[in-house]
C-alpha cells in the first residue's frame, strides 16, 4: 500500500515546476523541512493548486500543506496570511521547483 | 560417575557445575529432540483444526464466501470472481471453497516461510478470521514478521471510510454511468491526504469503441490501485471535469481495519473486468461486506451494475452517515463566471487566453473584490486550457505565476471561497429502470401501450440526481395495442439511445451529439405503418437559455432499413431543434421540431413536431403527456397520449 505513483492518462509531463499532472518525477529534497516523502509528493503533485490557494489565502490544498508542515490549527490563519503576503518569495519564479517552495514556505512557519 | 552413600551429597555439591551444564545440555537436547515431537503435536493440532473446520462447514460460512469473492454464495457450484491464480492457495481454490480453506489453514501453520510471503502476511483477513473461528492463539502458530503489511497498515492508518462517486461523464464510454472508489481516512484532518482504493480496467486503449467492446466482454484485466486521494481528486475534478460525491460511511475503526486487511489480500491480483456487471462498483461492495459481513450487498444485482445503483444499495443497507459534494473545475468555472457581469467574464477570459496581462490598467481600476474574482476565474480557466493542451507549458507557467502574484497582492479580503450550489444527490434521483402504461389516440384510433427500458435516464425524466441534458437509454421500448382492430404491434425498440446536450458559454464550447439505433413504426408511401430499423445520429450546439433550460439545434443523418422501402433502405439528412425546461423540479416541458429529406432511392421527406410534458409525482413515479404531429410521404398523422411511469 505504498504510494504507488501512477501517471494520469492525459500524457503531458514536465519537470517539477508548475504544470505537473503526475507525480512520477523525482527531484531535489528540501533542505530545511524535515525529510518527509508524503510532504514532497503532495507538493510535487499539487504545486499549481497550492500556488493558487496561497495566492488566494485559502483553500483545501493550502490546508493540507499546513497540516503536513504540522502548523497548529490556531496558527494557520496567520501562516496563510504570511504566505499570501510573501507569494513571490515562496514562488520566486514561474519555474520554481518543489523543494524551493517547501523551503521558502518553512521560513514563514514560525 | 559412581555413587557412594556418604559422599553423595558432597559429590553432588561438588559437581553442581557439571550437573548444571548437564541439565542445560539435556534441555537443549530435549528441545532439539522434541522439535519433531512438537511438530508432530502441531501436525496433530492442524489435523484436528482441519477436521473441525470441515465438521463446522466453515467453507460455507458467509465470511469465507466474502473473502474469496465466491458467487453465487448459496449454490452448490460457487466460483470466485477473482481470476488471478495467485489469489488462491489451492490449485482448485477458484471453484472449491473447502479445498481453499484447508490450503489456507495448512499455509498459516507452515513454519518454513516467516517473512512477507507467509500466508498470514499475504492473507491477513483470512488468517484473522480462521484464528478467531477456530480459537487458535498466536502461540500455536509459527512466528511470522509481516514487514510490508505492517508498513502498509501504518501508512493507511484506517480510521474512517468514504464511498466516492465521480459522477457520469457522458462523453466517455468508460464512465458513462459514473464510477465508484473507496477512500480510507487516516489521522490527517485534511481529506486530500487520505488514500483511495479503486478498481478499474487496466487499459491503454484510447479508442472508445475498442474500450467498450473489450470492456463488455471481459477482455481487460481489472486491477485495484491504491493512491493518495489528492491524485484522484485531480484526475476527476481537474482533468476529467467530473463532479465528485463523497458518501461518508459509518464504519467503525475495527470495521475499517477488517476492510483494509481484505483490500491488502486483493490488491495486486487481477480479475477480468466486465463493464456491465463485474465492474468497479460491484467489486468494491466486497470490501464493504468484508467490513460488515452481516450486510448483504453483492447479491442485490443480476445482470448489470450501475454505479449510482450501488450507492443506493449501500445507503439502504444503512452505511451512509453524511454526503459531501466536490464540484469539478468545470463546474467551478461555470459558477464563478455566472457570478460576474459579462465585462468581467470577458476580462478573465482575455487573461486566460494571454491576450491581456493580469495587471492591465483597465483591471486594476476596479475594486479589489472585483479584481480578485476576475483573477481567480482567470487562474482556473488558464489551468483548464492548459490541461486541454491549448497552450505551451512555458506560456502557462508564466501567465499562471503572473496571475497569482497579482492576486496575492489583493490580500485575503478580496474574494470569498466560492460556494457552488449543491445539486440533488445522485442517490436521490429516480431509479434507473422504467416501466409505464399509456393510452392515446392516433389519427382517431384509440390505443393502449406498455413501455419500458432497462436503464438509465431519459431527457424527459426528472433531472434531480442526474446531469441535465444527458440522456442514456438502454432498451427503451413500447408495445402498442389498437383494440378496435385487435392489433398488437411493437411500437419501438431502441437498443441504445444517447443524447448529450451540453450548453455553450463564453468559456466552454462543447459539441452536443446524439446516437440512436433500433426499431420504430414508420409511415410509408402507401400510408401504411410498418416496423423499420433506424440508425440516427447527429451533432450540434446547445444554449443554456440563461438558466431557463436547454435550447438545441442538431444536424442529423437518418438511415432506415425496411421491407416496405423500394430498395429496402433510405438515407436521410436533416436535423432537429427545440428546447427542454424544468419548472420547480416537477414539471418538465420538451419541444422538438425535426425534418429529414431522403434524397436517394425512395425520395421522400418527413417533418415531425412533438410537445412532451412530464410531471413528477414522487421520486419514482411520473406522469407524461405527449402531443405529436407528422407529415411523411404527404400523409398527416396526429397523436395524443398520456401515461404513468414507474422507475424501479
Write the layout of secondary structure elements.
The complex is a heterodimer of chains A (110) and B (648).
Chain A: H1 37-56, H2 60-68, H3 76-85, H4 87-90, H5 98-106
Chain B: H1 8-14, H2 16-55, H3 62-67, E1 70-71, E2 79-80, H4 97-109, H5 119-122, H6 124-134, H7 147-156, E3 160-166, E4 181-185, E5 195-201, H8 208-216, E6 220-228, H9 229-239, E7 244-249, H10 253-266, E8 270-273, H11 280-291, H12 307-316, E9 320-326, H13 329-338, H14 342-352, H15 361-364, H16 368-387, H17 393-409, E10 434-442, E11 445-453, E12 455-457, E13 470-482, E14 487-500, E15 512-523, E16 529-543, E17 550-561, E18 569-583, E19 587-598, E20 604-618, E21 621-632, E22 635-647
Helix pairs in contact in B: 2-4, 10-11, 13-16, 14-16, 16-17
Task: Explain what the structure shows.
The complex is a heterodimer of chains A (110) and B (648). Chain A has helices spanning 37-56, 60-68, 76-85, 87-90, 98-106. By secondary structure, chain A is mostly helical. By secondary structure, chain B is an alpha+beta fold. In chain B, helix 2 (16-55) packs antiparallel against helix 4 (97-109). The longest helix of chain B is centred in the N-terminal third of the chain and has 40 residues, at 16-55. The radius of gyration of chain B is 34 Å and the shape is flat. Chains A and B meet through helix 1, helix 2 and helix 3 of A and helix 7, strand 6, helix 9, helix 16 and helix 17 of B.
Amino acid at each position: 500500500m505504498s504510494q504507488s505513483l501512477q501517471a494520469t492518462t492525459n500524457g503531458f509531463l514536465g519537470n517539477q515546476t508548475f504544470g505537473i499532472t503526475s507525480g512520477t518525477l523525482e527531484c531535489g529534497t528540501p533542505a530545511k523541512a524535515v525529510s518527509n516523502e508524503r510532504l514532497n509528493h503532495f507538493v510535487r503533485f499539487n504545486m499549481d493548486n497550492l500556488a493558487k490557494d496561497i495566492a488566494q489565502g485559502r483553500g483545501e490544498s493550502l490546508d493540507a500543506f499546513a497540516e503536513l508542515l504540522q502548523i497548529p490549527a490556531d496558527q494557520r490563519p496567520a501562516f496563510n496570511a504570511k504566505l499570501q503576503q510573501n507569494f513571490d518569495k515562496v514562488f520566486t519564479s514561474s519555474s520554481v521547483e518543489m523543494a524551493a517552495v517547501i523551503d521558502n514556505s518553512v521560513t514563514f512557519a514560525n | 560417575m559412581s555413587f557412594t552413600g556418604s559422599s553423595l551429597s558432597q559429590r553432588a555439591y561438588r559437581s553442581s557445575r557439571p550437573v548444571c551444564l548437564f541439565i542445560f545440555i539435556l534441555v537443549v537436547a530435549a528441545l532439539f529432540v522434541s522439535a519433531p515431537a512438537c511438530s508432530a503435536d502441531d501436525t496433530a493440532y492442524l489435523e484436528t483444526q482441519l477436521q473441525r473446520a470441515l465438521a463446522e462447514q466453515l467453507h460455507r460460512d458467509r465470511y469465507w464466501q466474502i473473502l474469496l469473492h465466491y458467487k453465487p454464495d448459496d449454490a452448490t457450484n460457487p466460483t470466485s470472481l477473482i481470476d488471478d491464480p495467485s489469489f488462491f492457495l489451492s490449485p482448485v481454490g477458484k471453484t472449491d471453497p473447502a479445498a481453499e480453506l484447508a490450503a489456507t489453514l495448512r499455509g498459516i501453520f507452515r513454519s518454513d516461510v516467516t517473512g512477507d510471503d507467509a500466508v498470514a502476511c499475504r492473507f491477513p483477513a483470512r488468517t484473522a478470521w480462521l484464528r478467531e473461528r477456530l480459537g487458535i492463539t498466536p502461540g500455536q502458530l509459527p512466528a511470522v514478521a509481516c514487514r510490508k503489511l505492517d508498513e502498509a497498515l501504518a501508512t493507511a492508518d484506517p480510521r474512517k471510510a468514504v464511498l466516492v462517486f465521480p459522477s457520469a461523464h457522458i462523453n466517455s464510454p468508460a464512465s458513462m454511468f459514473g464510477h465508484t472508489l473507496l477512500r480510507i481516512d487516516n489521522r490527517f484532518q485534511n481529506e486530500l491526504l487520505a488514500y483511495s482504493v479503486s478498481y478499474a480496467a487496466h487499459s491503454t486503449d484510447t479508442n472508445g469503441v475498442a474500450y467498450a467492446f473489450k470492456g463488455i466482454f471481459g477482455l481487460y484485466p481489472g486491477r485495484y490501485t491504491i493512491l493518495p486521494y489528492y491524485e484522484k481528486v485531480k484526475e476527476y475534478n481537474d482533468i476529467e471535469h467530473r463532479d465528485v460525491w463523497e458518501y461518508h460511511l459509518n464504519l467503525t475503526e475495527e470495521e475499517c481495519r477488517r476492510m483494509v486487511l481484505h483490500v491488502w489480500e486483493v490488491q495486486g491480483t487481477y480479475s477480468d473486468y466486465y463493464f456491465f456487471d463485474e465492474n468497479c462498483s460491484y467489486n468494491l461492495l466486497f470490501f464493504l461486506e468484508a467490513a460488515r459481513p452481516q450486510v448483504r450487498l453483492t447479491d442485490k444485482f443480476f445482470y448489470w451494475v450501475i454505479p449510482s445503483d450501488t450507492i443506493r444499495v449501500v445507503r439502504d443497507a444503512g452505511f451512509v452517515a453524511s454526503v459531501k459534494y466536490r464540484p469539478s473545475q468545470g463546474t467551478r468555472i461555470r459558477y464563478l463566471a455566472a457570478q460576474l457581469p459579462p465585462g468581467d467574464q470577458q476580462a478573465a477570459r482575455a487573461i486566460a487566453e494571454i491576450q491581456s496581462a493580469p495587471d492591465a490598467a483597465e483591471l486594476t481600476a476596479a475594486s479589489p473584490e472585483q479584481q480578485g474574482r476576475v483573477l481567480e476565474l482567470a487562474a482556473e480557466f488558464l489551468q483548464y486550457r492548459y490541461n486541454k493542451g491549448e497552450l505551451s507549458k512555458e506560456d502557462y507557467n508564466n501567465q499562471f505565476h503572473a496571475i497569482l502574484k497579482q492576486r496575492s497582492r489583493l490580500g485575503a479580503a478580496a474574494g470569498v471561497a466560492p460556494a457552488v450550489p449543491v445539486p440533488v444527490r445522485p442517490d436521490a434521483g429516480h431509479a434507473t429502470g422504467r416501466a409505464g402504461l399509456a393510452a392515446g389516440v392516433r389519427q382517431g384510433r384509440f390505443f393502449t401501450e406498455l413501455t419500458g427500458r432497462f436503464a438509465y435516464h431519459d431527457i424527459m425524466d426528472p433531472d434531480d440526481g442526474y446531469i441535465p441534458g444527458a440522456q442514456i437509454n438502454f432498451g427503451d421500448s413500447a408495445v402498442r395495442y389498437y383494440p378496435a382492430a385487435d392489433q398488437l404491434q411493437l411500437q419501438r425498440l431502441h437498443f441504445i439511445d444517447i443524447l448529450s446536450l451540453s450548453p455553450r458559454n463564453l468559456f466552454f464550447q462543447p459539441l452536443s451529439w446524439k446516437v440512436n439505433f433500433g426499431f420504430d413504426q414508420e409511415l410509408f408511401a402507401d400510408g401504411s405503418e410498418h416496423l423499420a430499423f433506424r440508425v440516427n445520429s447527429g451533432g450540434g450546439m446547445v444554449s443554456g437559455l440563461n438558466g431557463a433550460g436547454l435550447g438545441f439545434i442538431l444536424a442529423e443523418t437518418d438511415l432506415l432499413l425496411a421491407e416496405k422501402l423500394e430498395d429496402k433502405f433510405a438515407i436521410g439528412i436533416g436535423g432537429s431543434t427545440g428546447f427542454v425546461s424544468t419548472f420547480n423540479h416537477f414539471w418538465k416541458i420538451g419541444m422538438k421540431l425535426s425534418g429529414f429529406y431522403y434524397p436517394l432511392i425512395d425520395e421522400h421527406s418527413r417533418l415531425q413536431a412533438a410537445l412532451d410534458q412530464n410531471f413528477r409525482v414522487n421520486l419514482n413515479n411520473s406522469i407524461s403527456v405527449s402531443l405529436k404531429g407528422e407529415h411523411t410521404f404527404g400523409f398527416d398523422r396526429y397523436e395524443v397520449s398520456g401515461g404513468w411511469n414507474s422507475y424501479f
